[in-house]
From TrEMBL, chain A:
Pfam families hit by this protein: Ferritin_2 (PF13668)
Descriptive protein name: Ferritin-like domain-containing protein
Record Gene3D superfamilies: 1.20.1260.10
Domain of life from the UniProt record: Bacteria
UniProtKB/TrEMBL annotation, chain B:
Highest taxon, organism lineage: Bacteria
Protein name: Ferritin-like domain-containing protein
Organism per entry: Mucilaginibacter rubeus
SUPFAM superfamilies found in the cross-reference section: Ferritin-like
Pfam families cross-referenced by the UniProt entry: Ferritin_2
Length: 281, 230
């Protein structure tokens, strides 16, 4: 287990880490006591979370941590589409070019991020295990049968794409001012949004997320309400944008206000949505 | 769940605080501007055109404001003079996109306050709004350019709150771009004219984007401090 070595390495640069992690042993015990539900694969994230707590609000994940987090999400997406494309009879001819384009992009993202992590002096994480039924490894989750039911497959695809957009967006501030890495991350982010739009078109859902005042999720799949929670936000910076003029009057509807702005998710939020369901030991 | 919500709220507050720090410059609008000569840099008028001003977040926000003004004006025209044979579905989609772009425009205008560049005069004389192919082609150019512009300028933004808001907008522009591409050629939502061999959306610099934007503007926009003079 490299985690302890990593903490030791950090301590060399930050002698106060031990105090920050106080009580360190309890913090580490917390990670392992997630036990079977939180995968070993999630340990790098758990560590990131722990460090964030240790350093308080000012501690952001490092560039390599952000990239490894992104890599894990891309492993999830690429495995999902690879398995979908390999499932005989799943994807109808009309959808084949769409799904293949998305699959190829996700595989390219995996390769690109591995290269970027190595170039940044880090080590790419290995892929965790996935249960695309969201069954935590049982294969018996709410999306059981998704590789023989195209509509179900698309619904899971859409949750992954929209969540991916939110996840990348959430990390942008952690890459502030980093010309190469931030630009690359924003560029992947835009491609995920293109995918989300296209998958939505295949499903017959509007290409953008149109929330109500109380429900962020516009997909009609209640199991993924959490993935869309927060999309109902209408306040951008200091401005409640529903108070701004629209083409037809002095205010703007919630539908337009929510569709015009996508919302971010933090690393913790994304992992809470995935680990123990789609990602397992 | 509670923790996530609290973090969310905390994030919004942080964004708001940092936003206000800058917005404070603009809140007092014209009055403040008149007495603060240095801030006039943000909208210097050069030979009938305008400049996004001194390097910094206000310049980048004004750059975004210029592009959103252009996009909003374009879709307003698309809906005002629909091309021949526009279906009700197409009209509904273009109406939604128009509404998003108008709100983006109004958002930047409100956020910039007295630091905003003036309203730009557009010139769409090269676009035949009666033809579907011309409108879709122009829409694709606007959306693709918008995505590349935000992706390419993101690293220039110094304030995390602004960067997040730019991110909130660019993914919506990418959703538009994918839709428009698919309307032109089914399945071209991430084609290699916009997405490179690493699966990354292409990005563009301010100096690359503004000359394209200026072909549709009577009011030429310069970015002298970012290596482009119209």
């Amino acid at each position: 287990m490299n985690l302890f070595n990593i903490i030791d390495e950090i301590e060399k640069f930050d002698p106060e880490l031990n105090d920050r992690l106080n009580p360190r042993r309890a913090a580490i015990k917390n990670i392992t006591s997630f036990g079977s539900k939180v995968a070993m694969a999630a340990v790098p994230f758990a560590m990131g979370t722990m460090l964030k707590r240790a350093y308080g609000a000012t501690a952001a994940p490092t560039v390599v941590e952000v990239l490894n987090y992104a890599l894990t999400l891309e492993y999830l997406e690429s495995s999902f589409y690879n398995q979908g494309a390999a499932s005989a009879g799943l994807i109808p001819a009309a959808g084949a070019s769409y799904i293949n384009t998305v699959k190829d992009d996700e595989n390219q993202h995996v390769a690109f991020l591995k290269t970027a992590i190595t170039a940044s002096g880090g080590t790419p994480v290995t892929s965790p295990k996935f249960d695309f039924t969201a069954g935590g490894g049982t294969g018996n989750g709410p999306f059981k049968g998704l590789f023989s039911n195209y509509t179900l497959f698309l619904k899971v695809a859409l949750a992954f794409e929209d969540t991916g957009v939110r996840a990348y967006k959430g990390q942008a501030p952690n890459l502030l001012g980093n010309k190469d890495i931030l630009t690359a991350a924003l560029s992947i982010h835009a491609v995920e949004a293109r995918h989300a739009s296209a998958i939505r078109q295949l499903l017959g859902v509007s290409p953008w997320i149109t929330s109500t005042a109380t429900l962020g999720n516009d997909t009609g799949v209640s199991q993924v309400n959490g993935n869309y929670d927060g999309e109902q936000n209408v306040t951008q910076g200091p401005v409640n944008v529903t108070t701004l003029p629209s083409i037809s009057g002095s205010t703007t509807s919630v539908a337009i206000a929510t569709a015009a702005f996508d919302e971010p998710l933090s690393m913790d939020q994304v992992l809470a949505l995935l680990v123990g369901t789609f990602i397992y030991t | 769940m509670k923790t996530s919500e609290q973090e969310n709220i905390g994030g919004a507050n942080m964004a708001r605080r940092s936003f206000l720090r800058y917005a404070g410059l603009g809140v007092a609008s014209a009055g403040l501007l008149a007495t603060a000569a240095c801030h006039k840099d943000h909208k210097v008028v050069v030979g009938g055109g305008i400049d996004i001003g001194a390097k910094g977040d206000l310049a980048i926000l004004n750059y975004a404001y210029a592009l959103e003004q252009l996009e909003a004006a374009f879709y307003i025209q698309v809906i005002t003079t629909p091309y021949s044979g526009m279906t009700s579905d197409e009209k509904a989609l273009f109406t939604s996109i128009r509404d998003h772009e108008v709100l983006h425009r109004e958002f930047f205008k409100a956020a910039l306050g007295g630091n905003a560049i003036p309203a730009l005069t557009v010139d769409f004389s090269t676009i035949d709004f009666t033809k579907k192919s011309a409108v879709l082609g122009a829409a694709k150019a606007f959306e693709d350019t918008g995505v590349k512009a935000y992706d390419g300028a993101g690293y220039l933004i110094q304030d995390a709150g602004y960067l997040t808001i730019a991110g909130k907008i660019v993914s919506v522009e990418a959703r538009h771009a994918a839709l428009i591409s698919n309307m032109l050629v089914a399945g071209s939502f991430a084609a290699d004219d916009q997405v490179d061999s690493n699966g990354l959306n292409k990005s563009a610099t301010i100096a690359e984007v503004l000359p394209i934007a200026n072909t549709y503007l009577k009011t030429k926009v310069s970015a002298t401090n970012y290596s482009y003079v119209a």
